Automatic annotation (TrEMBL):
InterPro entries: Precorrin-6x_reduct. Pfam families: CbiJ (PF02571). NCBIfam families: precor6x_red (TIGR00715), PRK08057.1-2 (NF005968). This is Precorrin-6A/cobalt-precorrin-6A reductase. It comes from Rhizobium herbae.
Amino acid sequence: MSKHRILILGGTTEARQLAAALACRTDCDLLLSLAGRTAEPMAQPVPVRSGGFGGSDGLANFLTGENFELLIDATHPFAARISHNAAIAAGKTGIPLFALRRPAWKQQPGDRWTSVRSVADAASALGESPKRVFLAIGRQEAFHFESAPQHHYIIRSVDPLIPPLGVPDARYILATGPFEEAAERGLLTENRIEVIVAKNSGGTATYGKIAAARALGIAVIMVERQQPADVRAVYTVEEALGLVDHLFSPETKRGV
């Protein structure tokens, strides 16, 4: 029996879980692609490639050259560029695409959110008066806050910020989630944090800081997602597995 070739664009817990579930099947041949931005990525349950494709054209050529039959975008909710390239590549090649997207967090009673469209907008939203700011956005876009050097920053990331942020007052924390609410309360209280800057990543691993902010009455500047709206999406690993079954069913292949 021939196996269905599937390329998963990963880097999330959900991508790893989906890959592990599909790896148990005898009808799937998987490759998991990681962006290669993390120095020590977690072990994965299937073969892995690392690095970019060279834009949408490079991804399209890779898909056709390697005879893939399905593309699954299970990247981080803020990996907008690769999601955009995936949509274009799927359109060019005619290879089916769907996205596995964890649901975004929803504002709850007691939350003090200011929603913005980008990290640059978040830096502006901090305002002019100096504040004690917890940056929990990773390291890739932290440079935007050099435009607001009057604040004191606590910056948490998985890998070191190189070069350090060009501001006079910053402290760095290297840590990998999940982060529990109780520990986040302690961190926020000990550092006298007045505002958190976060991305609306969804999921449970990093929600602790949001729950802690609610409990402590701390303001949150929330960067909302900007993702392709015309891509078919599912929101759980179980839904993704069901859609894989549907797409590879004989009826679907015959266009029934």
